[in-house]
């Protein structure tokens, strides 16, 4: 069965009327020199029997080292990657949410490959508010429809 993840997509309306989204650049040696397709919505796997929004909030905090803002979260949708992985995304207005104190969670892996040595790397290595138009090509392909859905919702308001 394909993995299921949950995440939080924060957005804010900028003074010029544009919309920005909070996205994170994936950490580790594979992503270090990549930009396009190397960014993500803060998200992670749902534990067995865990409420999906609780999982999204937990993963946000684990990846960024920041509690998600106290906001009214709405289900944006569930988006399916080409691999079959499913990501359920919640959305909220993140106006005023600052990321300057982010402390990124880490993972461990063998590095360099086949060396027998283990190294730790940040799950994400930076996070930033980015205009939706700029964020779209930078997100992993399976998450781009979430930005499209966000743009539709903003346009409806």
Give the secondary structure arrangement, pairings included.
Blueprint: E1 4-13, E2 19-26, E3 39-40, E4 43-45, H1 52-64, E5 74-80, E6 86-93, E7 106-110, E8 118-122, E9 124-131, H2 132-138, H3 144-156
Parallel strand pairs: 1-6
Antiparallel strand pairs: 1-2, 1-4, 2-3, 2-9, 5-6, 7-8
- What is the count of structural domains? 1
Q: What is the helix fraction of residues, given as a range?
A: 10-25%
Average of per-residue pLDDT values = 94
Give the quaternary arrangement of the chains: single chain
Largest sheet: 7 strands, mixed
Q: What fold name goes in the CATH topology slot?
A: Nucleoside Triphosphate Pyrophosphohydrolase
Share of β-strand residues: 35-45%
Order of helices and strands: EEEEHEEEEEHH
Q: In the CATH classification, which architecture applies?
A: Alpha-Beta Complex
What is the assigned CATH homologous superfamily? Nucleoside Triphosphate Pyrophosphohydrolase
Dominant shape: globular
* Amino- and carboxy-terminal Cα gap: 37 Å
Protein name: Putative NUDIX family NTP pyrophosphohydrolase
InterPro entries: NUDIX_hydrolase-like_dom_sf, NUDIX_hydrolase_CS, NUDIX_hydrolase_dom, Nudix_hydrolase_domain
Keywords: Hydrolase
Organism: Microbacterium telephonicum
What does it look like?
With 157 residues, the chain is of the alpha+beta class. It has a single domain (4-156), classed as Nucleoside Triphosphate Pyrophosphohydrolase (Alpha-Beta Complex), CATH 3.90.79.10. It is 21% helix and 36% strand. It is built from 3 helices and 9 strands. The chain has helices at residues 52-64, 132-138, 144-156; strands spanning 4-13, 19-26, 39-40, 43-45, 74-80, 86-93, 106-110, 118-122, 124-131. The termini are far apart.
């Amino acid at each position: 069965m394909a993995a299921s993840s949950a995440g939080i997509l924060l957005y804010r309306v900028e003074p010029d009327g544009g919309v920005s989204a909070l996205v994170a650049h994936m950490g580790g040696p594979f992503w270090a020199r990549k930009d396009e397709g190397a960014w993500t919505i803060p998200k992670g796997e749902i534990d067995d029997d865990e409420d999906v929004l609780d999982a999204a909030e937990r993963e946000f905090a684990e990846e960024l080292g920041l509690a998600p803002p106290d906001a009214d979260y709405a289900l944006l949708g569930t988006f399916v990657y080409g691999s079959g992985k499913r990501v359920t995304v919640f959305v909220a207005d993140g106006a005023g949410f600052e990321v300057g104190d982010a402390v990124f969670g880490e993972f461990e892996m063998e590095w360099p490959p086949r060396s027998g040595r283990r190294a730790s790397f940040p799950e994400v290595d930076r996070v930033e508010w980015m205009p939706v138009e700029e964020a779209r090509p930078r997100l992993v392909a399976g998450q781009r429809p979430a930005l499209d859905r966000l743009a539709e919702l903003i346009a409806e308001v």
